[in-house]
Each structure stands twice: as structure tokens, then as C-alpha cells.
Amino acid sequence: MKLTAKEIAKYLDGIVEGNETIIITHPGKIEEATSGAITFLANPKYAEYIYQTKASAILVSKEFKPAQKIMPSLIRVENVYSAITKFLQLYEQSFHPETGVSSLAFIHQTAHIGTQTSVADFTSICASATIGNNCRIYPQVFIGVGVNIGNNVTIYPGVKIYHDCEIGDNCIIQANAVIGSDGFGFAPQADGTYQKIPQVGKVILEENVEVGANTVIDRATMGATIIKKGTKLDNLIQIAHNVNVGKNTVIAAQTGIAGSTKIGDQCQIGGQAGFIGHIEIANGVKVQAKSGVTKSIKKEGSKVYGYPALSYQDYLRSYALFRQLPELEKRIRELEQNKK
Question: With contact defined as beta carbons under 8 Å apart, do 39 and 114 qualify?
Fold first, then answer.
């Protein structure tokens, strides 16, 4: 990226104070930025750094009043956080693959690729797959037979999307995620072996879903495993077959959700949480990290913690007592001896 402070100000509806022609090549933290960087000041806690930073430009609010001379150019904007977010989106786009289909990609003759969509090297797109407009597909992606991908979807390197799965508009799938692998379905046999149950369903990601790196979402045995719109999944999550995750739910890394469990809308789930199968979690539930959820949670907005998960407040009270167990045991033994 190479933009002048003036060009960035125009993009952000801001006003430059200082050198308008200074070249900006990258963003940087205000306390660490070097020449060529643009940084920002929104939190007064970092105000001292604005007089020390080596950045070339700084985004500040229109109301900001410096206490002393500032060397970098200032770009005054209405809302600093909104402006830096918009700039970072622009900066991120500079790393996207160029529009068009690489000659090193394999596209089946029956697949359909939308307009302004890029397909990078060594990607394989199978028969009857449909990819929408303005999508970005990075190298070494596999898209199976009959997959349907919406518009404005970004798929990072190494992603595997198995046959018949559906990806909604504006989804982001991070590197090496697997969408539509077989669910863990095996029927025990009389001789102690297990017979594989065919997994003939699919995965549906609704619009605006993000899937983290190395996360795996299994296809349904029949029907669909569904991740509803606006939900965000962190890295290294396992979603089993026929799970249904509600709208605008966030799930942190290393969480595992067993088959046919239903998670409500706007839930917040901490890292390394575990859910047994065939339970239902109400809307707005918060599950603390490392909790094990072994039964349905029917009350909306509940907060749970521990293994098995308890009410958050009950867990804290129980843990406070648990820490005192050695002393309590000692006191009980002393009381029993005094009775003799």
C-alpha cells in the first residue's frame, strides 16, 4: 500500500493538518509505529505517545487539542474508531488475490464463477459448484461437487468444503477449516466392531458467518448442520453433525459441541467449553471457559461455569468453599476429638 495522507483523509472524510503528501504504507500502534505508518489516538490513556511516536500520520478526533507540538501529520475525523476500522479494511484488501481465475487452478466445466471473483493457484472447484460475485478464494482451496457459495465470500488457503454444502453471503472461512466432513456416526455390531453410518446431509453457513482456522464443522447424518447468520467461530472448534448454532453467537477456541445439540441466539461461549449431544441452550446464555455443559439450559441469559456447569454465582461460592476444604476437615476432626 502507498497512499498519501491527503488520499487517506479523503477516503475517511477527514481533514489533514500538516504534510498532505506524506506517504503511508502500513498501520502501526502509536507506541511502536515507525516512519510510513499511520496510527490513531482514541483512548486518552495513550495521549503521551502522540508526542513521541515516529508514525507519519495520526488519526485524531476533530475535538483533539494538542498540549505541545506534534511532528506527524494529523488527520481529524468524526469518529476515530470507525475511521481506523475503515482504514484497516482498506489495508487488508491490498493483500487479497487479484481478480480472475489463475491458470493453475482447476475449474470443472460445469462449475459457475461469478463476476469480480478471484480464484488463486492450485484451487480445485468441482462439478456443479456455484460461486457468487466478488468472492476471494486463496490458493489450495477445495470446493466439492454441488457446493453453493454466495457473494462477497472470502476463503483462505487450504480450506476444504465438501459436496453439497452451502455458504451464505459475506462469510469468511479462515485457513485449513473443514466444512462438511463426515459426522462421527458408527453403529456398534454384535462382534464388537463398528459399522459406519453414511452421513448424507450437509452444512449450511448463513450470511455473515466467520469460521476460524482449523475449525471443523461436520455434515449432518440427514438434513443439515446449521450455523445461523452473524455467528463467529474461533479457531480449532469442533461442531458435530446436526448441530444448530443460533444467530450472532460467538464461540471461542477449542470448544467442542456434540451431535444434535442446539445453541441459541446471541450466546457467548468461552474457550475449551464442551457440550454433550442432544441438549438445547437458550438464547443469550454465557458459558465460561473450560465449562462442561451436560444438560439443557432453558433460562435465557443464564451464566454457567464449571464441570459439570453450574450457575456462575453458585460455582464461585462452591469454589470458595472448595479452597477451604483442608482447613474445614482439620476443624471437623478437632471437634470430633474434643467430643470424646
Answer: no
For residues 38-47, average pLDDT: 94
pTM of the predicted protein model: 0.83
Give me the residue spans of the domains in the chain.
3-93, 100-315
Q: What are the two backbone dihedrals, phi and then psi, of residue 226, each rounded to the nearest 5 degrees?
A: -125, 130
> Given CA atoms 90, 94, 95, 96 in this order, what sign does their dihedral have?
positive
Contacts of residue 237, defined as CB under 8 A and 6 or more positions apart, other chains included, come to: 212, 215, 216, 251, 253, 254, 255, 256, 257
Pairing of strands 216-218, 178-181: parallel
Question: What pLDDT, in 10s, does the model give residues 106-155?
Answer: 999 999 999 999 999 999 999 999 999 999 999 999 999 999 999 999 99
**What is the average pLDDT score of the chain?**
95
Tens of pLDDT, residue by residue over 241-295, are 999 999 999 999 999 999 999 999 999 999 999 999 999 999 999 999 999 999 9
Residue 179 is placed in which grid cell?
A: 466444512
Strand partners, 179: 161, 217
Q: Which CATH number fits domain 100-315: 1.10.357.10, 3.20.20.70, 2.160.10.10, 3.40.50.620?
A: 2.160.10.10
Nearest Cα residue to 262 out of 284, 282, 232, 287: 282
Query: What backbone phi and psi angles, to 5 degrees, belong to 248?
Result: 55, 35
Edge-to-edge strand ranges of the sheet holding 148-149: 112-113, 130-131, 148-149, 166-167, 202-205, 224-227, 244-245, 262-263, 280-281
Write down the CATH number for the domain with range 3-93. Answer: 3.40.1390.10
> Residue 45: phi, psi to the nearest 5?
-55, -25
Residues annotated as catalytic (active site), given as ranges: 241
CB 118 within 8 A of CB 136: yes
Cis status of the peptide bond prior to 308, with omega within 30 of 0: yes
Residue 308, pLDDT > 90, answer no
